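Work package 3, deliverable 3.1, input record:
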Amino acid sequence: MIEVVDLRKRYRKTTAVDGLTFTVREGSITGFLGPNGAGKTTTLRILLGLVHATSGKATIDGHRYRELDRPVTRVGAVLEASNYHPKRSGRNHLRMLAAAAEAPFSRVDELLEFVGLGNAGGRAVGGYSLGMRQRLSVAGALLGEPNVLVLDEPANGLDPEGIRWLRDFLRTFAGDGKTVFISSHVLGEMQQLVDEVVIIHHGKLIAHGPVSELTARAAGGTRVRSPQAATLRDALAQAGFEGSLDGDQLVTAAPPERVGELAAASGIVLHELVADATSLEEAFLELTGGDEIR
Amino acid sequence: MSGVLRSEWLKVRTVRTFLWFALGNAALILIAAISVVASNGQINTAADDRSVARIAAIALVFGLLGGIVVMAGEITHGTVTQTLLVTPVRERVLLAKVAMAGLTALCLAAVAELLVLVITVPGASLDLHNSRAVLLGVLIAAPLAGALGVGFGAIVRNQGSGIGISLVWLLIGENIVTVMSRSVAKYTPGRAFAALVSGEGGSENLLGVGAGGVAAAVWTAVFVAAGLFVFLGRDV
């Protein structure tokens, strides 16, 4: 489990992360969203021991990253795609990591094949496309066969085929009961992929929960279909909720739970009761006040 | 620790920078040694023997630059991020780099001495007995220079700047200090290493071999400690 508790990071005049607290539960795919400069990358880098927190803590299975024994066997990380020596081959880059991780070199060739770089492993990374570098990063993250993956904008530079490959891979990975914590600005992609989201803005947590809950909360209403829609509207009005009627359909600002309770109490038959969900992107924009996504 | 060292060895082996350093080192040694043979043909005094043997000290400069590249090169290219993801204990990473830079510098020094001996013993009658203190000094100084380079590289973080600053210091900075105060200049890093490889007692301009060795070791320890302090404290 990833746990972030009252995390703060202050640069001279800027507060990048401001009292952030959340958990990422085991076996879930959790999206990490926020506008440009919200503090996502800083948070992930603190979690991975690359940036020092001003206060608070970020732990994986109860330990700071630095304290983990052979961390690559617990956590795999994909950060920016530019962290390569341009003259070193992809295979040698992975071998260099494998040596430090005390993983066998045979694992390197397996992973190159797995990420689709089997034929390009001997080429210098300087000649790789951004998408190929991202695949190489994924291979590096999987060297130690970890149970947790932390990814910072992994879809950057990937073509549609690459994005689909990444989505399928992450689903398979999480399907084995493993944990994925992923930041991305491709919200449509995230909505299809993640179970939960953590949304931050100006370094602070503004929302955390299942995608369905957040989108419903952002839409803030319930849609009902009932042969007694008019009666239900009256019952809702008595309870203080407004509703608009359209034939047998009623849309109200009341939460679904309350609508169901009122309908049951009044003996009203319901044919449909759904949270009036919106897209993750709309929910995100509403929560962050429409700031640019990245 | 062995895995981290092996990884550092792969980093050195899988890019051409160190091959160029080895070739540059060998080329300069060859030019200097062949010049001695071509100009004199004979070495007459023990001081001449030591002077010719000191050609091998060129390897110290390449060892120093190698150390800077081992550390600052990783930061410049950003590969230090992935290094720290695999080995998050930064002290361990820096110590492995110190060991690898020291070993690389030692190899450069050994090759340099071999080239000097192969050319000047038959070509200019270099006396091994007279030059042994110099040759031993170079073998001791080279790993120290490599380690110092790692410490300096951790402080400057940019390999281009690191190489530039160190060369400007050695070629110009130390001479300015000498003009200002000869007694102080004897203790500067370059002069300390020069004393260690001099094979001679102290003079107005240089410490003796022993004192030079101590000063070189102190400078190395200071730079490695400062580099570690910076490396531990900085965000990556």
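The CA atoms of residues 88 and 121 of chain A lie 10 Å apart.
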